[in-house]
Design brief:
13 strands; 2 helices; Outer Surface Protein A, domain 3; about 190 residues; three-stranded antiparallel sheet; alpha+beta; 2 domains
């Protein structure tokens, strides 16, 4: 009884097979992280371009091999999905004349620049690494994406802190689902 399971390798992931002390190990990596998945020795591994093939070949243990194959395939697929997931934060900029734009780097350095015009007498320039992607929608909405959740959160907080929301008029950066009740302006 020969059982096979094909797993497609998504996106920019790199997959390689290694042996650690007589144990098969599958190494799955993206630009920032690396995961190791142990695979049973009774299973065969074959990599064809962007597809990974798991084979159970021992005919004496039919059902046990099939269960082992399904368990290994499920764990490999979940690790691939975790590494391929992009995290995203959405910010909107409220205020008259406030704008932003991304300056792509031309000098082959490892960072780009986000230029912010947020009501100061000068422009605010924020550097960010190349593993963070920024999309600007309508000059006042920004979508920040990254594979690394920590870097994404830190950069989004840095952008937000350049112009925190004003408690009276609401000017500044707002996270998409942020709710804040504005204070009433005092009258004389």
């Amino acid at each position: 009884m020969r059982v096979e399971k094909e797993i497609k390798i998504p996106g920019d992931l790199k997959v390689s097979v290694a042996y650690l002390e007589n144990q098969k190990c599958l190494i799955i990596e993206n630009k920032t992280d690396k995961k190791f998945v142990l695979v049973s020795n009774s299973l065969g591994l074959l990599k064809k371009q962007r597809t990974l093939v798991l084979k159970a070949t021992d005919s004496n243990k039919g059902i046990e091999n099939k269960l082992e194959l399904m368990r290994s395939a499920k764990s490999i697929e979940t690790e691939m999905n975790v590494l391929n997931k992009k995290y995203r934060k959405k910010l909107s900029l409220r205020g008259l004349g406030f704008r932003m734009r991304v300056l792509e780097n031309t000098e082959q350095l490892d960072y780009n620049v986000l230029e912010l015009k947020v009501g100061y007498s000068h422009l605010k320039l924020l550097r960010f690494s190349s593993d963070i992607k920024i999309k600007i929608v309508k000059k006042t909405r920004i979508i920040i994406e990254s594979l690394n959740k920590v870097k994404l959160g830190n950069f989004a907080k840095e952008v937000w802190s350049t112009r925190k929301p004003d408690a009276y008029k609401g000017k500044g950066f707002w996270f998409k689902y942020e709710k804040m009740k504005l204070k009433e302006i005092k009258k004389k």
